[in-house]
What we know:
Helix 7 (about 180-200) links the parallel strand 9 (about 175) and strand 10. The chain has helices at about 15-25, 45-50, 70-85, 100-105, 115-130, 160-170, 180-200, 220-230, 235-245, 250-255, 255-265, 270-280, 300-315; strands spanning about 5-10, 30-35, 60, 65, 90-95, 130-135, 140-145, 155, 175, 205-215, 265, 285-290. Helix 3 packs across helix 5 (about 115-130), helix 5 (about 115-130) packs parallel to helix 6 (about 160-170) and helix 6 packs across helix 7. The protein has 2 domains: about 1-155, Alpha-Beta Barrel (TIM Barrel), CATH 3.20.20.30; about 175-315, Alpha-Beta Barrel (TIM Barrel), CATH 3.20.20.30. It has an 8-stranded parallel barrel, surrounded by 9 helices. A two-stranded antiparallel ribbon has the order 6-7. Helices cover about 50% and strands about 15% of the residues.
Amino acid sequence: MNGTKIGVSISATGASESVAKIQRIDEMGIHAAWLTSGGGAGDSMAVLAAAAASTDAILLGTSIVQTWSRHPVSLVQQAQVIADLAPGRFRLGVGPSHRTPMERMFGADFRAPLGHLREYLQIVKPLIQSGSVEFEGRWYSAAATLPGPLDVPVMGSALMPGAFELCGAEADGAISWVCPHFYLRDTAMGALRRGARSAGKPTPPMIVHAPISVTDDINAARNGVRERLGYFPSTPFYARMFAESGFIGTPVSGWTDEMLDSVLISGDEDAVAEQIQGIFDWGASEVLLSVVSGSDDAAGSEDRTLSLLSKLSTS
């Protein structure tokens, strides 16, 4: 799988466990570790700073830092620390998340999320990559400098075509989550390319974030997604994305087997390897994988999945 990357989303109950898991997959040769904004381990930027100081080769990334949680200059200052501890290994993913949690958690005035994301990227990316920024926008303003540029790609979360187009124009990559793979191939990639063309730049990487389970029991893997991600089809943004994909009425239906099979990578080792290669074949640059259990033995199921990902990463 030359030229492509395999990453794993780390889920843990605390910072120490997160760092230990990142160290483990670093030793296994898996290309990348990613932290979401949740997972119970605390602030992802602080955890990745600890992981940066205790790993050697693995790429580290956020998927995502919620834009509402901090000013873009504050986030860049945190990125500066991680980039110094792990030169060339950190990738910063940002995104607006969703209305209800952002309003409840931060008291955010959740309006124009793509407009906020655009301005956030227009501050973070030049400050990181040129070392200075002067910006006055509708939602944010910033005037800051760094001692020098940082080797840190800045990526955005994307769900609907407009977000993928925005990432194509303004970001160094787009990160999806629980999107049907045919939707990413047939709709999202085109939007990403349009955005890049409008900005006169090459198409940035598409990172496909998907649940995965190496298992002989597909129904168990489907149930693993239902247990972990059961609410997604009913949330407004995801319901609209599923409708765009052809799955109508998902707040009522919940996860159907057809929906699950469109987002879940599962099966035995050969089947999973073939599915991952298929994603790369249509143009994705990286898979970002959240391991779900495919048997009653959750630890054994995770080990089986990680073992295959290690093999694919080092082949």
